[in-house]
């Protein structure tokens, strides 16, 4: 049988585990299958050379100092029969034979332990000992540990023992492994503050800009970020947009829109110019503890884009219902500009609509459209002109939800249930 079958405790080639059936332990006393001398009344069976050598060594060795050995089993005696006067006793030994004797048994508790009761006579065809089969747990444990040793050896051969003794360690402690979830919210916060710091400069205080940029710029990079130290500009508001993450999941580019105000140097000081919006792309990277800006941002051009072709259809106008609800729509927009109490008086029951609290006043309802739908709710649009401070007016278009209500007297009305 090959060595690897021996290591894995596998049966010989051509055999199966099912062929090696485990012998069941017999119930009661185990049966003897070997011929014994007491099974031959005519005389003892001639022992084999190995058996004769073992018996000779047993009787030639001196007896131990304490304890003893188990004597050879004696021939079981049957029930006593009446003896005559001339019949010798059954236990008398023939001339030239050693009379049977009962030696002391070795006790597991020591030589001074209390004697145990003698064992009963051995039945014919039964051996005075029993073989205990190995437990299934021991067999399973031996096979498991052998397989574990083979697996470890194979793993060591594949990966190399040197990698276990001296594993390779990276020299850069800031290396970040690729992960699926990029912190987009943190990237927007860092990019927004960095963009504001980048677009702020003042030659009268040149150290303020690098100090603010250093809050978000990665360590080791130039905090001046390309500024020559001349001029003045302020950045007031910034709004982050899309975060484009690269395939590696470590770097990204954040789209930020910043409102700036440049200044022009005059004889008496700096003169502020008109506000404008600038769009920048801020590169960021995910470090071991946070997101940092990985370099100066770049300007991106803003352009107007047309509406998509698959815009949802507004629906079919219901001119009759629009004409019937025109006065109610005017009353709602007037109340919507003034207070919550007036809105609650004209809105549908249960509607939660907050007013503008006097920020503007209704100038006029320029257009009112109600679209077809079910008998309980309809969608409507209203184009209004708001009056602001002074002579300022502003046109806006609202989308509303109308709900049909029934009064106690049975009268039906369409009232505004939601705005937007």
From TrEMBL:
Region (Disordered): 1-134
Domain of life, source organism: Bacteria
Pfam families the record matches: TpcC (PF12642)
Transmembrane regions: none
Protein name in UniProt: Conjugative transposon protein TcpC
The species this protein was found in: Kribbella italica
């Amino acid at each position: 049988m090959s060595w690897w079958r021996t290591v894995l405790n596998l049966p010989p080639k051509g055999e199966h585990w099912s062929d090696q059936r485990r012998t069941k332990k017999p119930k009661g006393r185990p049966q003897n299958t070997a011929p014994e001398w007491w099974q031959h009344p005519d005389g003892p069976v001639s022992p084999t050379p190995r058996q004769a050598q073992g018996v000779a060594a047993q009787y030639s060795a001196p007896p131990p100092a304490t304890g003893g050995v188990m004597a050879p089993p004696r021939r079981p005696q049957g029930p006593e029969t009446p003896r005559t006067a001339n019949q010798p006793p059954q236990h008398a030994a023939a001339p030239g034979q050693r009379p049977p004797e009962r030696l002391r048994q070795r006790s597991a508790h020591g030589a001074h332990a209390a004697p145990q009761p003698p064992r009963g006579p051995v039945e014919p065809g039964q051996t005075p000992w029993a073989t205990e089969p190995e437990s299934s747990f021991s067999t399973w444990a031996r096979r498991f540990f052998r397989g574990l040793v083979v697996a470890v050896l194979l793993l060591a051969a594949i990966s190399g023992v040197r990698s276990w003794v001296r594993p390779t360690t990276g020299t850069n402690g800031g290396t970040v492994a690729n992960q699926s979830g990029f912190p987009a919210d943190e990237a927007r916060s860092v990019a927004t503050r960095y963009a504001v710091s980048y677009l702020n400069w003042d030659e009268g205080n040149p150290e303020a800009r690098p100090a603010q940029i250093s809050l978000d710029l990665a360590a080791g990079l130039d905090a001046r970020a390309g500024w020559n130290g001349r001029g003045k500009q302020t950045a007031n508001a910034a709004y982050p947009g899309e975060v484009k993450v690269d395939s590696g999941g470590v770097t990204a580019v954040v789209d930020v829109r910043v409102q700036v105000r440049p200044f022009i140097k005059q004889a008496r000081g700096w003169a502020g110019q008109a506000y404008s919006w600038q769009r920048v792309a801020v590169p960021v990277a995910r470090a071991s503890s946070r997101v940092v800006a990985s370099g100066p941002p770049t300007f991106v051009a803003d352009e107007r884009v047309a509406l998509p072709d698959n815009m949802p259809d507004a629906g079919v106008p219901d001119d009759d219902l629009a004409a019937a609800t025109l006065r109610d729509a005017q009353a709602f927009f007037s109340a919507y500009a003034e207070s919550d109490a007036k809105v609650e008086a004209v809105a549908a029951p249960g509607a939660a609509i907050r007013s503008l609290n006097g920020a503007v006043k209704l100038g006029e309802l320029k257009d009112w459209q109600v679209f077809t739908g079910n008998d309980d709710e309809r969608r409507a649009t209203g184009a209004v002109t708001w009056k602001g401070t002074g002579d300022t007016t502003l046109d806006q278009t609202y989308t509303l939800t109308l709900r049909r209500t029934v009064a106690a007297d049975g009268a039906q009305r369409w009232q505004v249930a939601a705005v937007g």
